[in-house]
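Students often ask what a holo structure prediction actually looks like on paper. The answer is less mysterious than it sounds. You provide the chain, you provide the ligand, and the output is a string of discrete structure tokens encoding the 3D arrangement of the protein together with 4-nitrophenyl phosphate.
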Amino acid sequence: MTRVLMVCLGNICRSPLAEGILKSKVDSDKVTVDSAGTANYHIGKGPDKRSIATAARYKIDITDQRARQFTAEDFDKFDYIFAMDRSNYNDIVSLAKNTSDKAKVTLMLEVLNNPQAIEVPDPYYGGDSGFEHVFQLLDQATDLVVKKIESH
Ligand code: 4NP
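The corresponding structure tokens follow.
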């Protein structure tokens, strides 16, 4: 079993989409996918309505997800930890116990190898188009993540 964790700040906009999109592309008997936020603002809440609507347009249902906060124990529970932006990356790595923990963490868009797209922008304070943009970035990145996981 390969275990993948998607992490953003609030765990209500970006990482729930990343979780839902990757889940839609993998065999759940082989890959488990979860998400978390570095902040505690939204613990227990469902995804943002705009993330739910965006996922639904692509026939992905993320309504059952509930926000939780990233903890240091997640390093033991997951093989791959994907941070949506650099601030998330730094917050996650600051909790790493050793170099092996740290090595599990990468920026989600690193797989795209595109210097124009390094971070998944936080869509929380913007309009609906920000969520569509986030979806497209995550859709491209997760295609490559699937290949990476399957080659292991
Ligand atoms: P997310 O978006 O990190 O993609 O879930 C955010 C959600 C909430 C807040 C910030 C970002 N907030 O400040 O409440």
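The beta strands are 2-8, 31-37, 80-83, 105-107.
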